[in-house]
Write a structure and sequence with these properties.
This protein folds into 2 domains: about 1-145, no CATH class; about 145-315, Umud Fragment, subunit A, CATH 2.10.109.10. The chain contains 7 helices and 12 strands. It has helices at about 1-20, 30-55, 60-80, 100-105, 125-145, 230-240, 275, and strands at about 145-150, 165-170, 180-185, 190-200, 205-210, 215, 220, 250-255, 260-265, 280, 285-295, 310-315. Strands 1, 2, 3, 4, 9, 10, 11 and 12 form an 8-stranded antiparallel sheet that branches. It has a 4-stranded antiparallel sheet with strand order 7-6-5-8, with no helix packed on it. The chain is elongated and about 90 Å long.
């Protein structure tokens, strides 16, 4: 019982010390402190998974892990000092192959003879810069205010074309989504794939498509972005398919609460809500913002770059 109590006290003291020394890159840190912080991290990871999966508080769980990793950086510096090497060996973690040898070194025992790092090392501007950059990049990776995507299909033509690379901005509140927004979301049949489509119908609305025209609550809506390939439209009219299900005729159906009805702009060539159903409102990740690069996929030459599309706002 006494041994368990001692371990708990050491654990508590190590965690408290780590937070107190969050900006301390000098001196040493023992191997036991390292292991207690790894245990602390495993506990936080398990708890973050719980609040993410069962309570849905994704951002809170990510911030919790960020709070763990920031003081861990300075602790790693001190741990390396305790093994007799420079804390700047931490930089090997920026390479994939460098992570394993770094952690193997971190679990080495203390070096007491001829260890110049036992006396406190002077903290300089580079330590502060390192931690500042680490915090900034960690916040960007955690919050993900913007993301980039390469467009692989013509389903959003002509707004977005194959070869366009776009920037999307994070959706902080789904309550602010409106009709015509171009959104990124997990593909309902396979959530491992991100899809991008345009919001057409909102929760609680009745949607109907008749002869390619979209009606919301019985009223025809204007869709300047909708594209119907002229030759294909003529062909469909000749074959009597201009009102075929589900491409040109759909519904009427009421969109359930918490759901969205989405479509591609290239209406004859888009797999969307007409085929696989609604999008969960809470799963929406981001909104299309602008095209940052555009190049024809069928050529590698300089002439294939679409300069007129670069930095074009997506509307």
């Amino acid at each position: 019982m006494g041994n368990k109590t001692n371990h708990f006290i050491e654990f508590k003291n190590s965690i408290r010390s780590g937070f107190n020394k969050i900006f301390d890159f000098g001196g040493i840190s023992t191997r036991s402190e390292f292991w207690y912080w790894i245990l602390f991290g495993l506990i936080l990871i398990a708890f973050s998974v719980f609040i993410d999966e069962f309570l849905g508080f994704t951002l809170i769980s990510e911030i919790m892990l960020l709070v763990f990793y920031v003081p861990l950086q300075s602790l790693f510096f001190r741990r390396l000092h305790d093994t007799g090497v420079s804390g700047w060996w931490m930089l090997v973690q920026v390479t994939v192959v460098g992570v394993i040898p770094l952690y193997l070194w971190l679990i080495k025992s203390s070096k007491t003879e001829n260890n110049k790092y036992i006396n406190k090392v002077r903290i300089n501007i580079w330590h502060k810069l390192y931690l500042s950059l680490y915090i900034i990049f960690s916040l960007l990776l955690t919050i993900k205010p913007i993301q980039t995507y390469k467009i692989p299909s013509f389903s959003l033509f002509p707004t977005i074309m194959i070869g366009d690379r776009i920037v999307t901005s994070k959706v902080w509140s789904t309550e602010n989504l409106k009709r015509s927004d171009m959104i990124v979301f997990p593909f309902p049949p396979d959530p491992s794939i991100d899809y991008i489509k345009r919001v057409i119908g909102l929760p609680g609305e009745k949607i109907e498509i008749r002869k390619d025209l979209v009606f919301i609550n019985g009223e025809l809506i204007e869709e300047p972005y909708a594209y119907f390939e002229p030759k294909e439209r003529s062909s469909r009219e000749a074959q009597g398919l201009i009102d075929a299900v589900p491409v040109s005729r759909f519904g009427p159906i009421v969109i359930p609460e918490g759901k969205l009805f989405v479509m591609g702009d290239n209406r004859y060539n888009s797999a969307d809500s007409r085929y696989w159903g609604f999008v969960e409102l809470k799963t929406v990740k981001s909104k299309a913002w602008f095209i940052y690069w555009s190049k024809n996929s069928d050529t590698d030459t300089f002439e294939g770059i679409n300069f007129d599309r670069i930095f074009k706002k997506i509307e």
